[in-house]
Specification:
CATH class of the largest domain in chain A: Alpha Beta
Strand content of chain A: 25-35%
CATH topology of the largest domain in chain A: Rossmann fold
Radius of gyration of chain A: 18 Å
Number of domains of chain A: 2
Strand content of chain B: 15-25%
CATH architecture of the largest domain in chain A: 3-Layer(aba) Sandwich
Radius of gyration of chain B: 21 Å
Number of helices of chain B: 12
Shape of chain A: globular
Structural class of chain A: alpha/beta
Oligomer: heterodimer
Strand order of the largest sheet of chain B: 3-2-5-6-7-8-1-9
Chain lengths: ~280, ~350
C-alpha cells in the first residue's frame, strides 16, 4: 500500500527569478512529467518543512517543468525563498478545476490582477494566447503596491509581445520618480474611462488579495457583469487538495476540489467569502 | 441470516471462534462506569465485553487513525500491509458514522488509500445497546440504539438469549467458524429482540425529551437560520478551543498533512486529526482568516454537521453519541445548542 495521494513527486528547482523584493519565480522540474491546465493548482513541498498550495504561473503547454511565482508570506514560503537552483522540493497535483476556456471563446476576456495574484492569471494568459484569435479581445488590468512590486515586469511592459492585441493597463498604489502610469488601487482603473469592455457578453477573471477581489467584484458588478461571468480565484488553506481534510470549505463546496476558481454567482450566497 | 446460540455454548464461545487468528478490538469496562475500546490478542472472556453502550473512544479511530504515517518525502512510500482485524461490540452511533467517513474518504474520488485498507481489513461486529448514557440522544438525529445496516455481524442481547445476524457476505463467511455453536433463531427470540429494541429506543427518546429534543426536529433549518444569532457568542464564551469535541466525535473527519523530520533526520509526512475550533484552522499564509472568532468557529462546526452534510449527503453528521458533551472542558452541551437554535428558528 502506498499513500501516493498525499505524497509529492520529487522535483528540483532549476532557476530562481527575483520578481520583486518579496516575490520570486521558481522554475521547477518534476522527476516525472506533470501537466496542468490553467486554473488548476499544485501543492509544493519543502521537504521536512511543509507543503503549500500554489497555482503555476507558466504556460500549461509546457509539460516538463513549471514556474511558480511565490510571495514570501509564511513558514513554507520563507524557507522556499532561501532555496537556490539545485534544491530538492516536491510537487503534488495537478489539483482542482481549470478555467472553462472553451466557454470564453468568441467573448471578450478581462483579466484583473492584484499583486502576486497576477501569477495564476499569467498561466491563463498563456493558454489564451495559444489561441488568441478565438477571443474577441483580451484586456489586462493590474494593480501593484509600487512600481518595484510589479511582477513579470518586462513582459508586462512589452505586453507579452502582443502589440495592440492585448489591452494592458497597470496602476500602482504609490508611484515613484519614474512612474508615469495611473496611481491608485486596481478598482480605480475598472471605470468607464480606463476600461472599455462588454460586460453583457464578456467574462472577467479576478485574482488577488481577498480585499482586492471583493472590491474588484463590486466594481465589475457595477459595470454590468452578471455574477456568473465573474471568475474568482478563491485561495483558501487547502491541505489535502482532494476534498477530504475539510480546511477549505466554502458553503457546500471545497476550494481544492470544486475550485479554486469559482464564478461569483456560485458562491455569492455563502457568508464571509472575502475573509 | 439470523441465529441463536445452540444449547451448551455461550456467546464467549462464539466470539472466540470468530476472532481466532485476527487482531481483536473489543470493549473493556472502566472504573468510571464507561467502556474503553482496546486492542487484545484474542477475545478474553471475563475481560472483553460487548458493552451495553458505546465506548469512550470513537470507532473512527480504527479506520481514520489520529496519526497516520504517510512516508518519507522523496522515499518510495511502500508501507507494511495491515493485518486483518475484528472489532467486536460496535454500537450503532459509531457504525452509522462510517457513512460520513466513507463518503469523504472513499466515495469522494480519489479514495484515501489508508482508509480504504483499514475499512477492508476491519470486520465489524456490532451489538445493540442495552443501556445508555445520560448524554445519548441518537433518536433525535434519526438514528436508533441498534444497527440496521453496515455491520458484518450483529449481536442482539435479549433477556432470553442472543440473536446473531449476518449483514454482509463477509460476515457470513466469518460466522462459518462458529457454525457448530449456532442454530437458526426462533421467531419467539426474534420477537424478544424487537421488543428489547423498541424499549431501548423509547428510553433514549424519553431521555432526550427531558432536554427538550425529539425525533424529527429540523436542525438544518434551525442552524441555517442561526447565522446572525447571538447564541454562538453565548456558547463560545465557554469554549477553550481544546478540540476535544472534534477528536471524540464519531463523524468529524478533518485532518492536516504535517511535515517534519523523523528520528533519522529524513523528511516525513503524517496525517493528523485536526479541529475546526482551532484558531488557525482556516488561516491562510499572510494571516487572513475566514473565522477569526471562536463564535464563528463554533457556528462552523454546527453548520458543517447540520447544514453542509444534509446538503451534500442528505444526513446530519451527528449520531447523538454525546461524546462531545462529556468531553467539553467548557461544558457546552450540543443538545442545549440545538434546542436554542430550534427555539429561535
Amino acid at each position: 500500500m502506498k499513500p501516493d495521494l498525499y505524497m509529492p513527486v520529487p522535483a528540483r528547482i532549476e532557476a530562481v527569478i527575483e520578481e520583486t523584493p518579496n516575490i520570486k519565480t521558481f522554475s521547477v522540474r518534476p522527476a516525472e512529467a506533470m501537466s496542468f491546465e490553467a486554473g488548476q493548482f499544485i501543492e509544493l513541498t519543502v521537504p521536512g518543512v511543509g507543503e503549500a498550495p500554489f497555482t503555476p504561473s507558466s504556460s500549461p503547454a509546457v509539460k516538463d517543468h513549471m514556474e511558480i511565482t511565490i510571495m514570501r508570506a509564511g513558514r513554507v514560503t520563507d524557507k522556499l525563498h532561501s532555496l537556490a537552483p539545485g534544491a530538492e522540493v516536491g510537487l503534488r497535483g495537478p489539483l482542482g478545476q481549470r478555467y472553462p476556456i472553451e466557454s470564453f471563446r468568441g467573448r471578450e476576456v478581462v483579466i484583473v490582477g492584484g499583486g502576486v495574484g497576477l501569477a495564476p492569471l499569467r498561466a491563463l494568459l498563456f493558454a489564451l494566447l495559444q489561441e488568441v484569435s478565438s477571443f474577441k479581445k483580451i484586456i489586462i488590468r493590474y494593480g501593484a503596491k509600487t512600481p518595484r512590486d510589479i511582477v513579470f515586469r518586462d513582459a508586462v511592459a512589452k505586453k507579452w509581445d502582443q502589440g495592440d492585441a492585448l489591452d494592458v493597463l497597470v496602476t500602482v498604489d504609490r508611484g515613484d520618480d519614474t512612474w508615469t502610469g495611473p496611481v491608485g488601487v486596481v478598482t480605480a482603473i475598472l471605470d468607464e474611462k480606463n476600461l472599455r469592455c462588454d460586460p453583457k457578453n464578456g467574462v472577467a477573471v479576478v485574482c488577488g488579495p481577498p480585499i482586492m477581489m471583493k472590491f474588484a467584484t463590486v466594481a465589475l458588478l457595477k459595470r454590468g457583469y452578471p455574477p456568473e461571468s465573474i471568475y474568482l480565484s478563491m485561495e483558501k488553506n487547502m491541505s489535502c487538495g482532494v476534498g477530504k481534510c475539510g480546511h477549505c470549505r466554502i458553503g457546500t463546496q471545497y476550494a481544492c476540489k470544486d475550485g479554486p476558481v469559482f464564478t461569483y454567482g456560485s458562491i455569492q450566497s455563502v457568508p464571509k467569502i472575502w475573509e | 441470516m439470523r441465529y441463536q446460540i445452540a444449547s451448551g455454548h455461550s456467546i464467549d464461545d462464539v466470539l472466540c471462534a470468530i476472532s481466532r487468528g485476527r487482531v481483536v478490538y473489543a470493549l473493556e469496562p472502566s472504573d468510571a462506569g464507561q467502556y474503553h475500546l482496546v486492542r487484545a490478542e484474542t477475545w478474553q472472556p471475563g475481560t472483553s465485553t460487548l458493552g451495553s453502550f458505546r465506548p469512550v473512544e470513537p470507532l473512527k479511530s480504527l479506520v481514520f487513525r489520529p496519526r497516520e504515517f504517510l512516508g518519507q518525502v522523496g522515499g518510495n512510500g511502500e508501507q507494511p500491509a495491515m493485518p486483518e482485524r475484528i472489532m467486536i461490540g460496535v454500537k450503532n452511533c459509531d457504525l452509522s458514522a462510517l457513512r460520513i467517513h466513507d463518503h469523504v474518504m472513499l466515495k469522494t474520488e480519489p479514495a484515501d488509500p489508508l482508509y480504504a485498507e483499514a475499512r477492508e481489513k476491519t470486520i465489524l461486529v456490532s451489538c445493540d445497546c442495552t443501556d445508555c448514557l445520560e448524554v445519548c440522544f441518537c433518536p433525535v438525529v434519526g438514528e436508533q440504539p441498534h444497527a440496521k445496516e453496515g455491520f458484518d455481524i450483529n449481536v442482539s442481547p435479549t433477556p432470553k438469549g442472543y440473536v446473531i445476524e449476518t449483514g454482509s457476505e463477509r460476515g457470513a463467511r466469518v460466522l462459518e467458524a462458529a457454525r457448530d455453536l449456532l442454530q437458526p433463531a426462533g421467531d419467539a427470540l426474534v420477537q424478544e429482540r424487537d421488543k428489547s429494541r423498541a424499549a431501548m429506543y423509547q428510553r433514549v427518546v424519553d431521555q432526550a425529551a427531558a432536554k427538550g429534543l425529539r425525533p424529527g426536529m429540523d436542525f438544518k433549518k434551525a442552524i441555517s437560520k442561526s447565522f446572525e444569532s447571538k447564541l454562538w457568542e453565548d456558547f463560545a464564551e465557554d469554549c477553550v478551543e481544546c478540540g476535544a469535541c472534534n477528536f471524540c466525535c464519531c463523524t468529524c473527519h478533518c485532518f492536516l498533512l504535517a511535515d517534519g523530520r523523523g528520528a533519522s533526520g529524513a523528511p516525513e509526512r503524517v496525517k493528523l486529526w485536526d479541529s475546526c475550533l482551532f484558531k488557525n484552522f482556516a488561516r491562510v499564509a499572510g494571516g487572513a482568516n475566514m473565522r477569526p472568532h471562536r463564535a464563528e468557529r463554533l457556528l462552523n462546526r454546527f453548520d458543517k454537521k447540520f447544514n453542509f452534510f444534509p446538503d451534500v449527503l442528505k444526513t446530519y453528521a451527528c449520531d447523538g453519541c454525546g461524546r462531545c458533551v462529556e468531553a467539553c472542558t467548557g461544558k457546552i452541551d450540543i443538545r442545549d445548542v440545538l434546542k436554542r437554535a430550534v427555539d429561535e428558528a
